[in-house]
Amino acid sequence: MSGGTxxxxxxxxxxxxxxxxxxxxxxxxxxxxxxAVEQAWLGAGExxxxxxxxxxxPGWPVLRGRAQVTRSYMLIMMNTEYxxxxxxxxxxxxxxxxxxxxxxxxxxxxxxxEEEGELGPLVGGxxxxxxxxxxxxxxxxxxxxxxxxxxxxxxxEDED
Length: 160
Description:
The protein has 3 helices and 6 strands, in the order ααββαββββ. It has helices spanning 6-31, 34-40, 66-78, and strands at residues 54-56, 63-64, 82-95, 98-110, 122-136, 139-149. Strands 2-1-6-5-4-3 form a 6-stranded mixed beta sheet. The longest helix is centred in the first third of the chain and has 26 residues, at 6-31. It is globular. The protein starts with 5 loop residues before the first helix and ends in an 11-residue tail after the last strand. Residues 18-150 form the SnoaL-like domain. It holds the Pfam family SnoaL_3. This is Nuclear transport factor 2 family protein. It comes from Kitasatospora herbaricolor.
C-alpha cells in the first residue's frame, strides 16, 4: 500500500482482508477441509438471532444456522471427488463492519469414476455468488452465501 490518506489505506486494507477471507473459503472447499470451512463462517456467538448464518447453494432451499450450513458443506464434500474454483469478476465493497463480495465461480468438478482409484469425468459449471461478510474480533467472517447457477444455452449467437 502506497500513497493515499490513512482512511484510504485502511479501506484498502479492509478490502484486501475481505478478499483473502473469500479466497480462503474456496481454498478450504477445494481441499475438503471442513474445519477451515467452518472457520470461514460467523461463530455461534457472532451471528444474530433467527439462525445467524444463511446459505443458499444452487438448487437448494435456504439453509439457516451453523448446523445446517456445516452439514450442507459436509454433504457436498462427501459426494464430490474433485472440485476446483476459478473465481472471476470478483468485486468487493466494504461498508463499516460489513462487506459484500460478488464473483463468478467457474467450477470444475470430478464425476463418479468408472474404476476404483481413478478420477471420473470432469464437469464444468458456472455459479454467480454473493458472499456477505462481517468484521469480528477474529477477522472477516462469512455471514451469508447465495449461489445462483448461470444457465447458458450456447445458442445465444444464433438468435437475432
